[in-house]
Every structure is written in structure tokens, then in C-alpha cells.
Design goal:
- This protein is α/β, with parallel strands linked by helices and about 350 residues long.
- About 40% of the residues lie in helices and about 20% in strands.
- The strands form three sheets. Strands 4, 5, 6, 7, 8, 11 and 12 form a seven-stranded mixed sheet that branches. A four-stranded antiparallel sheet has the order 3-2-1-13, sandwiched between helices.
- Helix 2 packs antiparallel against helix 3.
- The protein starts with a strand and ends with a strand.
């Protein structure tokens, strides 16, 4: 079996504008790329690539020549070679190629990807994860909405201002009571002193974890912060080195929970390794959203194949990252379930996508 072609088909994707944190804005007229890796046996693998107007060139100019003629079952060897390109190629591009290879191998085996990885569970709870809202009352309303839908947990991305963030988190706790787990994602907003103050408040409010309070390169302050606080700290989403940078975070006690996803970590291959690394230290590795529907499907397969990822993240819970599949992941009652069809196991909505076709890069 050999890889015969790699291409990116580009489509329009209209999303209502939204924001998160202090300055990250998304939505409006966008494009999404569908990556296809084809083989000489008629089995193809797919992945979604966000921002293809910026990233498709990396895939075609740099990744494609290294895939053509290769056996798509040599996933480990191929990923190791692609990782060496990480200084010049976005990890989301390397990740898209890796996802395509896993999709091919699942289809070849007639099994969902999580079966190839080693299924550990059939379902996990979902936490609703907020975008940015102007008022604490809006944060309260959103949390109550998902509590009523049966979601067991809810994560807040507030205003990146310590005092305002504490007030928002306090208001949400008052609204939902003690029957819903709450998490805070500060999105790298604080210095050390403010991170301590906010962390103490989260302990008093019985929050489940405290995510990314400090800049991702500030390992020194993370070590100090983790010594000070009892609430579990979760970091490493964008930590330098990704999978290969995790050992220092673990051995220096800088975080309690590791973090990653197929886009920022560089595919299914390193994400599984990241989860296994954490498991070796009896740590959790909570998988982050993937930025688009098919990345989230890939994340879901890894979630079902490891014992130490507790939740599935629905971000933003406005639904702005849900697009391009005939049927998206079902989160009824605040639970998601293991895919059952071969490969990624979700059908791309080609008819809808092709209604706003922009072109093909190959």
C-alpha cells in the first residue's frame, strides 16, 4: 500500500463573530480546508485544516513530498520525520497529516481508531466551555442553561482581570450551587501574585481545576504557584516542546494535570503518547478542544483510548466550532460516546461544503 496523492480542498465557513479571553477574536467569514491523503488501494484519509489560506502551502510544499510513495501504515516513522519540521511547519499541519494516516488505518482494519489505540471506555462526561461575555449575569445564564441540559461541569473563560474574574466565578457558583463542577481557564492572563490571589479564591469557591493562570513559558512561577495552592493546576496546552517538553513540568511539580489536543500537540500519535506519559505518573491528561469538528472527533478517539482523560470539552459552547459533518458529536445529556464506525467514523458533509467551494491546493 502506498500514498499516491495529498490535497487540500478549500471551502467557505461563515461563523458568527465571537471572542475569548482578553483579546482573542474568532468568527466572521472564514475558510476551512479538507485534507485528503489517497492511496493506491482506494482508501483515503481525511482531516480538517483551519486557516487553509495560511497553512495549506506548508502541507503541499513540505509535507506532501515526504508522504508520496510511503506506506500509510508506517505512522510512527512518518510522524517522527514530520516532527523534525516543527520549527518551520505549524503543528496543526503535521497533526492533520497524522490524523489522515490514522483514518486510513482504521478504515483498512474496519475498526474505529480508538480500537487500534486500545479502547479504555465507551463514554465520558462533557463540560461546557464559555466564550467571553460582557456581564456576570450572562455567564450565570449560560451555566444554568447547560446545567439544565444535564451537563455535569462547566468551564469559565472570564475577562483576564483578577478582580473581575473572581466576581464572575463567584456569581456562577452562586447560580449553579454545588451540583455542577466548575473550572476556571484564565488563559495565561496573570502574573504570579495575582495568580495566587485568584487561585485562593477558586479554592474557596470549590472549583475543580485552575487552568493556565500564568504564561506558558513561566515554569519558575508555575513551580512556586503549585507549591502555594491546593486546587489542581492544569497547564502545558502551549508549553514549549509540546510532548517532548513535558518531562520538566512533571519532574519539577509545575502542574498537576497535563494538557494537549491533536492540533496543538501535532496529531493523534503524540497526543496518545502525552496521555500515556501522564498516566505513568498517575496524572490526568485532559484533552483540549481541537478547533473544528473533525479535530474534535480525533480528540474523542484518543479520549476513549486512555484511562486518564476525564472529560470532553465543548468549546465554545455557543457551537461556533461545529461545522462540516453530516452529524456532529452527540452530547445529549452531557455525555459523549465512543465512535463505532471505521476510521474517524464521521461523515463529511460534502454537499454543504461544496456550496461554497473556493479551490483545491495540490
Amino acid at each position: 500500500m502506498q500514498i499516491t496523492d495529498v490535497k487540500v480542498e478549500v471551502f467557505g465557513w461563515q461563523v458568527e463573530p465571537w471572542r475569548v479571553g482578553a483579546g482573542m477574536r474568532f468568527g466572521g467569514p472564514r475558510q476551512i480546508g479538507v485534507v485528503t491523503v489517497e492511496t493506491d488501494e482506494g482508501i483515503s484519509g481525511n482531516a480538517f485544516l483551519g486557516g487553509p489560506e495560511h497553512q495549506a502551502g506548508y502541507l503541499i510544499d513540505t509535507i506532501k513530498p515526504r508522504l508520496l510513495g510511503r506506506n500509510p501504515q508506517d505512522i510512527g516513522t512518518i510522524w517522527a520525520e514530520l516532527w523534525k519540521l516543527n520549527r518551520g511547519v505549524p503543528l496543526s499541519v503535521i497533526g492533520a497529516a497524522d490524523i489522515c494516516l490514522w483514518d486510513i488505518n482504521g478504515k483498512l482494519a474496519g475498526q474505529p481508531i480508538h480500537r487500534l489505540l486500545g479502547t479504555c471506555k465507551e463514554s465520558v462526561p462533557v463540560y461546557s466551555s464559555t466564550a467571553w461575555w460582557e456581564t456576570k449575569e450572562e455567564y450565570q445564564e449560560e451555566a444554568l442553561k447547560f446545567q439544565e441540559l444535564g451537563f455535569p461541569a462547566h468551564k469559565i473563560h472570564p475577562h483576564s482581570d483578577p478582580k473581575a474574574d473572581i466576581e464572575i466565578c463567584k456569581a456562577v457558583r452562586e447560580a449553579v450551587g454545588d451540583d455542577m463542577e466548575l473550572m476556571l481557564d484564565s488563559m495565561w492572563a496573570y502574573g504570579y501574585e495575582d495568580a495566587v490571589r485568584v487561585g485562593r479564591a477558586m479554592e474557596d469557591l470549590r472549583y475543580y481545576w485552575y487552568e493556565d493562570p500564568l504564561a506558558e513559558e513561566d515554569l519558575y512561577s508555575y513551580v512556586k504557584l503549585n507549591e502555594k495552592l491546593d486546587i489542581p493546576i492544569m497547564a502545558t496546552e502551549f508549553a514549549p516542546g509540546r510532548y517532548y517538553g513535558m518531562t520538566q513540568w512533571i519532574t519539577r511539580y509545575a502542574t498537576d494535570i497535563l494538557r494537549g489536543d491533536v492540533a496543538v500537540t501535532g496529531g493523534i500519535t503524540p497526543l496518545v503518547r502525552l496521555c500515556h506519559l501522564a498516566e505513568g505518573f498517575r496524572m490526568k491528561c485532559e484533552i483540549h478542544h481541537g478547533g473544528n469538528s473533525l479535530n474534535n472527533v480525533a480528540n474523542l478517539h484518543v479520549t476513549m483510548a486512555v484511562p486518564n482523560c476525564e472529560f470532553y470539552e465543548f468549546f465554545p459552547c455557543t457551537g461556533s466550532n461545529v461545522f462540516g459533518l453530516v452529524e456532529d458529536i452527540d452530547m445529549t445529556g452531557g455525555m459523549v460516546h465512543a465512535p463505532t464506525e471505521p476510521g474517524l467514523g464521521y461523515e463529511i458533509d460534502w454537499e454543504r461544503l461544496r456550496s461554497d467551494y473556493k479551490g483545491t491546493v495540490e
